[in-house]
Amino acid sequence: MLNQPATKYTAFPPIALHDRQWPSQQITKPPVWLSTDLRDGNQALFEPMSVETKIRFFTRLVDIGFKEVEVGFPSASQTDFHFVRRLIDEKRIPDDVTPMVITQAREDLIARTVESVRGAKRAIVHLYNATAPVWRKVVFNMEVPQVMQLIQDRVAYLKKLTDAAPETEWVLQYSPETFSATELDVALQACNTAIEAWNARPGRPVIINLPTTVENATPNVFADQIEWMHRHLNQREHVVLSVHPHNDRGTGVAAAELAQMAGAQRVEGCLFGNGERCGNVDIVTLALNLYTQGVHPRLDFSDINAVAREVEEFTQIATHPRHPYAGDLVFTAFSGSHQDAIKKGFAAQKADAIWEVPYLPIDPADLGRTYDSVIRVNSQSGKGGVAYLLEKDHGVVLPRRMQVEFSAVVQRHAEAADAEVSSEEIWKLFKNTYLRAEHTELTYISHHLQEGPNDQQIIDLSWRWQGDAQTRKAAGSGPVEAACKALGVDMQVLSFEERSMGSGADALAIAIVEGSTSGVQGSRFGVGIHRNTTTASVMALISLARRLEVSLPEPADAKTN
Ligand SMILES: CC(=O)SCCNC(=O)CCNC(=O)[C@H](O)C(C)(C)COP(=O)(O)OP(=O)(O)OC[C@H]1O[C@@H](n2cnc3c(N)ncnc32)[C@H](O)[C@@H]1OP(=O)(O)O
Ligand SMILES: CC(C)C(=O)C(=O)O
Fold this sequence. Notes:
Elements: E1 32-35, H1 37-41, H2 51-64, E2 68-72, H3 78-89, E3 98-104, H4 107-116, E4 122-130, H5 133-140, H6 144-163, E5 169-177, H7 184-198, E6 206-212, H8 219-232, E7 239-245, H9 252-261, E8 266-269, H10 283-291, H11 304-315, H12 336-348, H13 383-394, H14 400-417, H15 423-435, E9 443-451, E10 457-465, E11 468-476, H16 479-487, E12 492-501, E13 508-516, E14 524-530, H17 533-548, E15 559-560
Parallel strand pairs: 1-2, 1-8, 2-3, 3-4, 4-5, 5-6, 6-7, 7-8
Antiparallel strand pairs: 9-10, 10-11, 11-15, 12-13, 13-14
Function: Catalyzes the condensation of the acetyl group of acetyl-CoA with 3-methyl-2-oxobutanoate (2-ketoisovalerate) to form 3-carboxy-3-hydroxy-4-methylpentanoate (2-isopropylmalate).
Keywords: Amino-acid biosynthesis, Branched-chain amino acid biosynthesis, Cytoplasm, Leucine biosynthesis, Magnesium, Metal-binding, Transferase
Family: Belongs to the alpha-IPM synthase/homocitrate synthase family. LeuA type 2 subfamily.
């Protein structure tokens, strides 16, 4: 890195638009979307797409809802020419979808481009030339008047060719390539030259497409440039004002959004931000940003995973796991406080109310994603995530203090494993902690319960401890108290709850009992799961005694089997 970048780089100057209106505008409707996945996206791939792949991609774009698709650069490659012809000859373009073909402003290339879409119901021909000072000087060796002459001549040539083929409804798209780096008066002159040469008028609209070919300033500068053009363009009512942002500074989405606030009616981009260098603007993100503001984008991403997998197959480029809306990890929360808030948010969210689940800007279900992936557990996670997974996957609702106790078990495991803990592993840990015992430990064998005098319950309880089976009889006001007395341990039951796990004939009961004993700080929990509710509660008591590591009295006065 240079210590003095100012000796090598210079800031793009601000635009003198002091009465700018865009900062207080809101986007209230979707723009016209144009997908350039098959052109700008395709030209940025290691391996350009085959005709068959392009056909599949085109079909997917139409299914998503694009009404305008840039299908290629037919004068540049036989593959593109052949693909465009197949779309038309095989009648693969629905009536409400318009193909667009791009060409440099050169006569031979324009003629070939028009040829490629001959016979289409409607077609946009996209003509471009770079207008920024460096390109004028270094690439074209042209002064401004010569650049204007080039536009005038080539648009007129295109008009002549298309006028001769009236069976197609022709639309001109003119792009001053490198617009964002071009002096505004030069860019305006270029666009107005194209508008006049095309003879834009009612029924003969023109698309003026303003790119950040290379992003060169903060997005507010681009918004100023767009608002200035929006105010100054000739025949504005017959012009569809379009933008084509790239993402060199990582602000392509912001540039496209601010540009719409500044007057842009149409946006060109690629799915998941594919495209030259750092990509074209990401249309998925733009569309779903709109959706989360309550504006339907008129693009269907209700199965975002399917779209992502297919685009990965077409482009051979993986979607980043943190990609907005589509990344594998964007609906996961590892950190405890986030999990806690999400869990509470899901519980509080009413089906027909405005979405307000903390940390989740969109309902994953709206993208065809399930809640399964929302919460994942690692050593940064707290009780909320563990409790959520146990409840969702196993129907086990932990009392709050038990969430704290059990999440410490999971955290120890996560730290030791130095990895994420799956829901399956959490369940295994739960069973190991509360339900399973080593053969030397205290385990439940059976019980028999009968009514005693004064509403008492008399239990005959059998257990195994240190390998020996024992049975003892005792009475209590309920099975839990009777079982506690039968065990003859120093243990106080502090709370008890029982619920069903699942429903129908196969439903199990889960009993959770909290208790304490002298010498052990605080309380611990025991769990019993059984088809019979009383058996579950007695098993929970034995689980608690095991967890408290209470000493059982010598088997002297127990009936030993
Ligand atoms: C910003 C963008 O992404 S725009 C799209 C960019 N995509 C591509 O360029 C890929 C497709 N292009 C190609 O494959 C080739 O450029 C072709 C087939 C179209 C043309 O190839 P060639 O005839 O060999 O020309 P080449 O690519 O070298 O173009 C350079 C010439 O075109 C001129 N030129 C470049 N762009 C334009 C333009 N938009 N309008 C007019 N002339 C142009 C240059 O000044 C140069 O002229 P010169 O040879 O007199 O100096
Ligand atoms: C031709 C134009 C619109 C382009 O692709 C760009 O500037 O990135």
